[in-house]
Write a structure and sequence with these properties.
The chain has a 3-stranded antiparallel sheet. The chain has a 3-stranded mixed sheet with strand order 4-5-6, covered by helices on one side. It has 2 domains: about 35 residues, no CATH class; about 90 residues, GMP Synthetase, Chain A, domain 3 (2-Layer Sandwich). The longest helix is centred in the middle third of the chain and has 23 residues. The protein is an alpha+beta fold. It is elongated. Helix content is about 35%, strand content about 35%.
């Protein structure tokens, strides 16, 4: 399986602008610029997309791991915050809230350790990863 996306940039880094498109069409010439990345402009930015990828991958992997352990979550809510400092991404912080009928904390924690070790985007990101986890 291969997936792709395209970025087009016009002009200088600060005054220029660009757009992003994905193979699926979910992003179709979605605007990004200096202001969307480093200020409060309207559009997206690479760090936001990394955060979305990490949150989405982590939530789906947790669902698979829970299913393999015999549980089905009612809801898995993952919020990811990417920290950009000194020109590098330094941290990916995940806040995980899950409602999983019938699971105890020990089993859930085992599942979380599996996900932390095996989520594809977690493995891709060579940064500190921190977690806040709530099991309801």
């Amino acid at each position: 399986m291969k997936r792709n996306a395209t970025a087009v940039w016009n002009g200088t880094g600060k005054e220029g602008n660009g757009h992003l498109s994905t193979q699926s069409g979910v992003l179709d010439k979605t605007q990004y610029s200096f202001n969307t990345r480093f200020a409060d402009g309207v559009g997206t930015n690479p760090e936001e997309l990394v955060a979305a990828a990490h949150a989405g991958c982590f939530a789906m992997k947790l669902s698979f791991v829970l299913n393999a352990a015999g549980f089905t979550a009612d809801v898995i809510d993952v919020n990811c915050t990417i920290t950009l400092e000194g020109g590098s991404i330094t941290n990916s912080h995940l806040v995980v809230a899950a409602t999983v009928p019938g699971i105890d904390k020990v089993k859930f924690d085992e599942c979380m350790e599996d996900v932390k070790a095996n989520c594809l985007i977690s493995k891709l990101l060579n940064v500190d990863k921190t977690y806040e986890v709530t099991l309801a």
